[in-house]
Amino acid sequence: MDARTPNKSPLYRTPAFPVLLLQLITTLVVAITLWFFRGWIAGYSGLLGGLVAFLPNSYFAFRVYRYSGARSARAIVGELYSGEAGKLILTAVLFIAVWLGVKPLEVAAVFIGYLVVLAVGASALLIVKSFPKH
User: Which InterPro entries match (predicted)?
Assistant: First the structure.
């Protein structure tokens, strides 16, 4: 008998959802702001930088919240490690894809988008704590 219990809750019911939602909104706000003040190349560069942070975080959240319950503790720990490894690999692949596949590109805008969205993720405990419960 498998001790892992699949989580029946959809991703939007997990504690990661408010953080991911705020990261997605932040990605769009950064892209629009850069587009408005620096032009369309900066805008889509910032959008790509934000997505390089957002997509791996979404992958990590999906992996970590796949299981629930005390009987799934071992599976959850395993998902933490594999999810983090996958997140790092996905981040590297996305950065390489952006650098090699997108021309013209404003490098500073890519890093601005990436770092701002990453800062939202670093504030996750504050975000989850202040998000209203359903």
Answer: ATP_synth_I
Give the span between the Cα atoms of 112 and 116, in whole angstroms: 6
Encode pLDDT of 61-120 as tens digits. Answer: 888 887 665 566 677 777 888 989 999 999 999 999 999 999 999 999 999 999 999 999
Domains of the chain, by residue range, sit at 14-128
User: What CA–CA distance (Å, rounded) separates 101 from 86?
Assistant: 21
- The identity of residue 69, as a single letter, is G
Rounded-to-integer distance, Cα 27 and Cα 115, Å: 10
| Residue 117, burial from CB neighbour count under 10 angstroms (0-12, 13-18, 19+) | buried
End-to-end CA distance of the chain: 33
SS3 category, 39: coil
pLDDT tens track for 21-60:
999 999 999 999 999 999 999 999 999 999 999 999 999 9
